Amino acid sequence: MNAMPELLRVALRLAATGVPVLPLRAGKLPFGNCPECRHSACGDRPNMKAAGPCQCPAPCHGWAAATTDPNVLRSPEWAKGWRKAATVAYHPGGAGLTVVDLDDAAAVAWARVTLPATRTVPTTRGEHWIYRGTMQSSNGVRPGVDIKSLMSYARWLGPGAGTTAALPDAVRALAVKAPPAVRRAPQTLSVPLRGHGGVCPHRTPAYLERGIAMAEQRISAAAGGVHTTVYGTFLAVLSTHGRCGCLTDTHVTRLFTAAQAKGESPRHCTDAWTNALTALGM
After folding, report:
1. CB 138 within 8 A of CB 174
2. How many CB atoms lie within 10 A of CB 212?
3. Strands, E assignment, 138-228
4. H or E element: which one contains 280?
């Protein structure tokens, strides 16, 4: 009989405490074993006896695959995933938690002077701050900061240190989108998703093409902090070309395709694009 993978042992221990878990492959991405669920086509509604309403028993679409059922975790359908898994992830919202994912030292420094102290877990470059309570998940709420709670997953990196505090209003407020800036002049901008396809009045067509290609490369090269990289790249593209009407659906599709290849869902891409528009007052 084959020995039980160590990551499965960790997952079973967490599941026994009420934490829904799932395996992640290299790159912190969930396994993609079910074509019917690809790109969250099933709506990511969790089913604790399978991975989703399609009744696929494989760990195939992120947070909705997370479960506390030891029979599912040990099932033959999940065995391949555990053998190839790089780490264990969990669904914070399903455990009644919210994770403030601080991706770098600057974000950690901001949190230490802004947010109430709570349980913290070191990450590769930053920290996870874990609060008791759930809320809407949101990526790129500020530089280097993502919120993972409902409909999201986070890596299990250990129990951390400190006492878990109640979810504060300061964290909830991070996910509230600010209203678009009020413009004094008549609004003439077409939404970039439906751009005019014209030429930037201050740039050559080659400059636009080079900018899109560089943006695709930046997203594709992201080694971590993908959510933040996608948002920052969208923001940079829009700040340079968003007011010219030169961006077409083709350009935006290229950016979304690059982001989805790094694991972003269509919904997260749309959220990042909308947040960038809002940040620029578009």
Report:
1. yes
2. 19
3. 138-142, 145-148, 154-155, 165-166
4. none
* pTM tops 0.90: no
**Cβ(126)–Cβ(108) under 8 Å?**
yes
Structure tokens at 187: 């609004």
Closest by CA position to 42, among listed 75, 19, 20, 65: 65
Residue pLDDT, tens place only, 36-86? 655 555 555 444 333 334 555 555 567 778 889 898 888 887 887 888 889
Q: Tokens 């790159």 — which residue?
A: 27
Distances (CA, A) of 117 to 95, 131, 137: 20, 9, 20
One-letter amino acid of 164: T
Long-range contacts of 247-252, Cβ-Cβ distance < 8 Å, separation of 24 or more: 247/192, 247/193, 247/195, 248/195, 248/197, 249/193, 249/194, 249/195, 251/195, 251/208, 251/212, 252/192, 252/193
Q: How far is CA 113 from CA 103, 106, 110, 129, in A?
A: 16, 11, 6, 13
153-189 residue pLDDT tens: 999 999 999 999 999 999 988 887 644 443 333 333 3
60 in Cβ contact with 32 (< 8 Å): yes
Region of residue 40 (phi > 0: left; psi between -120 and 50: alpha; otherwise: beta): left
Place of tokens 């230490």: 112
Cα gap 258→266, rounded to integer Å: 11
3-state secondary structure 231-265: HHHHHHHHHHHCCCCCCCHHHHHHHHHHHHHCCCC
138-175 CB burial, b ≥16 within 10 A, e <16: bbbbeebbbbbbebbbbbbeeeeeeebbebeeebeebe
For the record, the structure tokens of 3 come out as: 């020995």
